[in-house]
Amino acid sequence: MSRSVRVVWEDALTAYDFGPGHPLAPVRVELTMALARELGVLDAVELAGCAPATDDELALVHRRDYIEAVRRVSATGRPDRAAGLGTEDNPAFAGVHEASALIAGATLAAARAVWTGEAEHAANVAGGLHHAMPGTASGFCVYNDPAVAIGWLLSQGASRVAYVDVDVHHGDGVQAMFHDDPRVLTVSLHESPRTLFPGTGFPHETGAEGTAVNVALPAGCGDGGWLRAFHAVVPPLLREFAPEVLVTQHGCDSHALDPLAHLMLSLDGQRTAYAALHELAHETAGGRWIVTGGGGYELVQVVPRAWTHLLAEVSGHPLDPATATPQGWRQLVRERTGETPPLSMTDGRKPEFTDLSAGYDPADPVDRAILATRNAVFPFHGLDPIP
Questions:
Q1: I need a labelling partner for 272 at 20 to 30 A (CA). Which of 57, 69, 235, 364 fits?
Q2: What distance in Å separates the CA atoms of residue 129 and residue 116, rounded to the nearest whole number?
Q3: Does residue 76 fall inside a structural domain?
Q4: Considering the domain boundaries, does residue 87 fall inside one?
Q5: Segments forming the whole domain that contains residue 314
Q6: Is the pLDDT of residue 236 over 90?
Q7: What is the tally of structural domains in the chain?
């Protein structure tokens, strides 16, 4: 389905590094790009570099005093707890502004390519830092690159932008920045805030006009329940909203092996979600699709394979899940991490789900989560919450 695809990448994007032992290790994107390259995924796309986001571009969604504070930390390496830098989640480090601005610049480059028509789809797997707030760092995120890109699209005249976030954590920063802006539909599918950071993302958080949408899924939810919830909420809302551009965040920390969360998706379920979003980009947004990475803390078994599948889907040439991982990449994994690499691009699952239209089970926690969301937001959009 894809006509022209741009993947934004600079080796310097791995400078976004909170230090040894931090869960957000840059080796995850290094291994992703290496795997995508060895499997020929990058042969089907245009690779492009990027420049750091300027202060004016960051100020589309971030406070000026916060940007100045990040710059001060960047110059000295000294913490500024008022700015959220110097915490366990967001350690201060010299060069933090430059590293963070480059990630925002990469997602901006993807947005520019799609908005100007230079590319139909564009991706930045190093991006997706969705927790950063207007005036503080949060949850491993310093500058909120998806929100910067959305803010830029609005500044260029976009009147309807949809953002769909499939990270296991609530996309709280993006929601906060556009909570009362009817031009932006934010949809987040995540583990319930009762059991996971950041403690927000309940269905009743709807924004002024129902444009903040939250599907809070129970811990233990696997492929079938997750896909049932996705299809019960996301397609009808995107069809009704009819965005000019679709922006998606693809944190793969919903995987069963992720050490920081409690959903139970497989690589195969995640790949199925990528395909569904690709179809929706064409159906509802004229093919204009901006893609970012996000969370994901199983650095070898999950992130590189998940996001290589993502890039392959974006390119229009999905990989056969039975594809073997290349020997050269396996050796790189051993050298860079000392871990045993996966042998193929699948977890061996065949994700299936039953559509909500076939019936609703009030005793099922996934169905209760779905109905809570539909009841909260569907009436704002003229949609019937009852399946």
A1: 364
A2: 24
A3: no
A4: no
A5: 5-50+104-381
A6: yes
A7: 1
Does this model's pTM top 0.85? My answer is yes
pLDDT tens-digit series, residues 268-309: 999 999 999 999 999 999 999 999 999 999 999 999 999 999
Residue 94 domain-assigned? no
pLDDT of 1 > 70? The answer is no
For residue 3, pLDDT over 80 is answered with no
pLDDT number for residue 366: 98
- Give me the catalytic one of 121, 131, 170, 255: 131
3-state secondary structure the chain: CCCCEEEECCHHHHHCCCCCCCCCCCHHHHHHHHHHHHCCHHHHCEEECCCCCCHHHHCCCCCHHHHHHHHHHHHHCCCEHHHCECCCCCCCCCCHHHHHHHHHHHHHHHHHHHHHCCCCEEEECCCCCCCCECCECECCECCCHHHHHHHHHHHCCCCCEEEEECCCCCCHHHHHHCCCCCCEEEEEEEECCCCCCCCCCCCCCCCCCCCEEEEEECCCCEHHHHHHHHHHHHHHHHHHHCCCEEEEECCCCCECCCCCCCCEECHHHHHHHHHHHHHHHHHHHCCCEEEECCCCCCCCCCHHHHHHHHHHHHHCCCCCCCCECCHHHHHHHHHHHCCCCCCECCCCCCCCCCCHHHCCCCCCHHHHHHHHHHHHHHHHHCCCCCC
| Domain of residue 28, CATH code | 3.40.800.20
Q: What is the dihedral of CA 8, 346, 337, 258, to 10 degrees?
A: 90
**Cα–chain center distance at 217:** 17
Q: Given this model, what pLDDT does residue 38 score?
A: 98
**Over the stretch 136-154, which tens digit does the pLDDT of each residue have?**
999 999 999 999 999 999 9
Our answer to whether residue 131 is catalytic in this structure is yes
pLDDT at residue 2, as a whole number: 63
Half-sphere exposure of 264 (CA within 13 A, CB side): 9
Please give the Cα distance from 47 to 113 (Å, whole number): 12
